Amino acid sequence: MTAPAANGGEQVSDGTVFGQWCSWHHGAALSRPVAMIERGPGAGGTLYACRPCRIKHGFDSIPTFMARAALFNHLRGTDDTPPCPSCSRYERCPEGDALWAELRRQRRADQRTDQ
Ligand SMILES: [Zn+2]
Ligand SMILES: [Zn+2]
After folding, report:
1. CB-based contacts of 27: which residues, under 8 Å, 6+ apart?
2. How far lies 33's CA from each of 17, 45, 59, 89, in Å?
């Protein structure tokens, strides 16, 4: 059986990305992007892992990681941007709301399996 080094992933209707091949247990499974290939013939590609493998290895999917980082940057600020003055424990600005919604959506997608 020949496995694709890195499949292209699949954008489903809600915008979350799934692959159909897990690069960790080397089998077909509903998978999410977890790592970029930095060197070798597949450089620039993306590695996908299924949910059991993500749990086993403690991986966050890249979309979830990015969504969380975007929310944290909005709430806490970065080197270049100040923390959001409107978001607090009790209130969120529209942008903060959208970032929360995106993180929830990606976490839900992480729960998905083939079954
Ligand atoms: Zn797997
Ligand atoms: Zn805000």
Report:
1. 21, 50
2. 7, 10, 10, 31
In the reported structure, the alpha carbon of residue 84 is separated from the centroid of ligand 2 by a whole-number distance in angstroms of: 5
Domain boundary assignment for the chain: 10-111
From ligand 2's centre to the CA of 79, what distance in Å?
A: 17
Q: How far apart are CA 41 and CA 54, in angstroms?
A: 24
Give the predicted TM-score (pTM) of the model. Answer: 0.79
Write out pLDDT tens, residues 39-49.
998 888 899 99
Q: How far is the CA of 94 from the centre of ligand 2 (A)?
A: 7
